[in-house]
Description:
eight-stranded mixed beta sheet, kinase (chains A, B), 2 domains, Carbamate kinase, homodimer, aspartate kinase activity (chains A, B), VC0802-like, 29% strand
Amino acid sequence: MNIIVQKYGGTSMANAKCVKNVANKVVRTKKKGNKVVVVVSAPAGMTDELVKRAKEVTEKPSGRELDMILATGEQISISLLAMAIKDLGEEAISFTSSQVGIFTDDNHNKAKIEAIETKKITEALDQNKVVIIAGFQGVTRNFEITTLGRGGSDTSAVAIGVALNASEIEIYTDVDGVYTADPRIVPNAHKISKISFEEMLEMAGSGAKVLHLRSVELAAKNHLPIHLRSSFTDTIGTYVTEEDENMEDVLVRGVAHTTNNAKITLANVPHTSQNIAYIFEEIANNNINVDVITQNYVDKDNLTISYTVSEDEFDSALELANRIGKEVKAQAVFGNEKVAKVCIIGVGMKSAAGVASRVFRCLANEGVEIDMVSTSDINISCIIRESDYQKAVIAIHNEFQL
Amino acid sequence: MNIIVQKYGGTSMANAKCVKNVANKVVRTKKKGNKVVVVVSAPAGMTDELVKRAKEVTEKPSGRELDMILATGEQISISLLAMAIKDLGEEAISFTSSQVGIFTDDNHNKAKIEAIETKKITEALDQNKVVIIAGFQGVTRNFEITTLGRGGSDTSAVAIGVALNASEIEIYTDVDGVYTADPRIVPNAHKISKISFEEMLEMAGSGAKVLHLRSVELAAKNHLPIHLRSSFTDTIGTYVTEEDENMEDVLVRGVAHTTNNAKITLANVPHTSQNIAYIFEEIANNNINVDVITQNYVDKDNLTISYTVSEDEFDSALELANRIGKEVKAQAVFGNEKVAKVCIIGVGMKSAAGVASRVFRCLANEGVEIDMVSTSDINISCIIRESDYQKAVIAIHNEFQL
C-alpha cells in the first residue's frame, strides 16, 4: 500500500474552518486506499505571537526556552486536525516529534534532523489510522525540544517521507505551484508543471519562497518527488522531481528575484595572499551572511571586491567593512542599501551558449544597469538597482518567452 | 540544603508583567539559600481558549487529543518563566512532564499521578539551576500526554514536593489564604493562619476553591505542610498542616458554602433490601454525581430519600429520578433546582457537644429553613434554600465568633 506524506502550512491551519477543510482533503486521500501521514505547521500567526510573548519577557530569550515555547504551536495544530478527522469518522492519532522520535542535533532554533524512528508511525498506519505529526520540531537524544528554523515543516515532511519510503510528498500551501516569475510582477507568468530539483534549489535560494531550501536538498538527495500545491483548490500544482526527458524542454525555467539586498564594495584592495581570506573570515566571525561575491582586478596589484548582504544587516556590515577596509588598505569603501537580485534559472542553460549575452542585451535595452554578475551552470544572478527590478523581471520573462 | 516547591496559578502567569513578578519571587527564594522547584499553570484564560478552539472543530473532542492541546498552555508558562529568571541572572531550566517523567495512569483529562522520576530535577538543582516544571500535565508509561483535570497543578506541586522530600510547598494564588468564610459575603471574615489537613479537606470539598482537593489529600497522606499565599503580596498566608497544639483552639474553623446545587426527593419509597442500592446504582450508571444524601423512615415500611446534585445536571437527574421513582414505586418525586449548601467545619467539633444544636438554633432565629442535614465528626452540612445562603453564612460566622 502507498504511503503518502502530506504537509499543510500555517495558512491551511489558520482557523477551525481551515482545519476542517484539511481534514476533508486528508480523508479523501485515505479513502482512495492510501496510508496517509500528515505533517502540519502552527496555525498562521501563532509562531510570531509566541515570539512576541517571549520578547515581552526578555530581549534575548535563550535558544532552548524559545524552542520550548515555539513547539507548542505545532502541538496545537496536530491535536485540532486529529479531532477534525475523527469527527469525519476516520481514525486518527497525533504525535509530537518527541513522541515519534524525530531526532535532531542540539542546535536550538536551527536544528538538523539526524534520524527518525518509524515504529510508532507504522504501527498506527497498520491500525488504519491517519498519523498526524508536528512539523518544525524535533528532539535531541537527551529529549531536549528543538526546532528546525522557519519553514522547517517542509523539511520535516520530506525527512518523514524518506524515512517511511513514501511514494509521494504533497506540500500544501497558499499558492498553487512554482511560477515562471512572481505573478504580482509579471501578469502572464505561468505555473511550471514540472521542475527539476536543481532548478528548484536555485529558485528557492533566489527568492522563490514556496519551499524550504533544505527540504529540496533532502528530496533531491533521496530522489523523492515533491508535489507542491494549494490547499484551497484541487488543482494539480508543480512537481519537483529528477530532471527527465518528459520535462518541458526550455532554456530558462523561471526568473526569481529578491529585493531586500544591500551591496558593499571594497575598492582597490592590495592583492596579498592573506587579504581576501581575511576579509571574509572577519565578516563570518561577525555573523554577517554574505550572498553574492564578485572580485575583479583593477590592475595587476589591486582588486575590487563587492558582496551583497541582507538589507537588515547593512548598517553593521558597512561599519565592519569600514574597519576591514582600513586594515587591508582599501582605497575606498562604498555601500548601497538598495539593490535587487534577479536570477535566471534553467537546466537548459547547461548545454546552450549565449543565454548570458541575451540577458545582458535585454537588460541593456531596458536601460537596466548591471552592478554585479555571478553565474553557475544553471543560474545567472544579476545585482541591479532596486528601482529597476520590476522592469528587469518583465523584460527577461518576455525575452525567453516564459 | 532545603528544597522548596513553589506553585503559581494562572492569574500569576497571566502576562509578561506577572511572569516577571513571579521570577522575582523565585529568585529571592533562591538567594536565601534554597533549592527551588517551580510548578506553573497555564496563563489565565488560556485553557478555556484552547478548549474553545477544540470545540470549534468538533463537539466531542477525544480525551487524548484534548490532553494534547491542553498541555501546551503549561508548556508556554514554563518557557516564559525560565526566560524571565535567566533575565535576572539566575540559571533556570524548564521541563515538560514528559521530560521529567511525571507518570500517570491513562485516564485522559483526569489522570492520576503514579510515579515521578526525580533524576533530571535533582541533576539540575545540583547544577544550581531553578527547575520549572509544567503542572497539570503528565505522561503515561507509553509516552502519551495526559492531564490531571482542573486545578491539577496544585496536585502536581504536592506530588513533586513529596517525591523530592521538599521541606515546604508554597502554593501562590490570587487570594492570600483560607478565610473563615467567603469575604465577599462576610466582610469581617478573617484569614486563618493555620488549618489542619482534615479541615482543609472539608473546606475544599465544600466550596472553598482555593486548593485542589486531591492535592490536600496527598499532602495529608505524606505529612507535607502547604503554605497557601498570594503571589501579589509578601504577606504570610495560611498554613495547611497536621493538627497540633499550636493551632488556634477553636470549635469551628470556618464556614464554606456552594450555591450550584439542586435537590431531588423520592418520597415514600417502599423499603426493600434492594431498592436503596438500586436507586444509587442507577444514578451512578448514568454518570450523575451525588453530593449529600439523606434518608428517613416515613413509617416502618417506607422511606423518603433526598440527594443533591450539581445544578448543571438537574434536568437529566430529575428525568432519571422520575423513571427510577416508578420502578421502585415511590409515591412521588420532587425536584428543587435552587438549593445551597452551608458547611460548618472544625476539628474542635470532634470533642465538643452541642455545635449542631447551636447551628440549628441560629439558623432558626434567622428564619432559615434547613432542608437536609448531613454530618461528619468535623463537618455539619446544611442544605437550605439558595436565597437564604448569605444570611445563613453571616449568622453562623457571628454565632461562633469567627
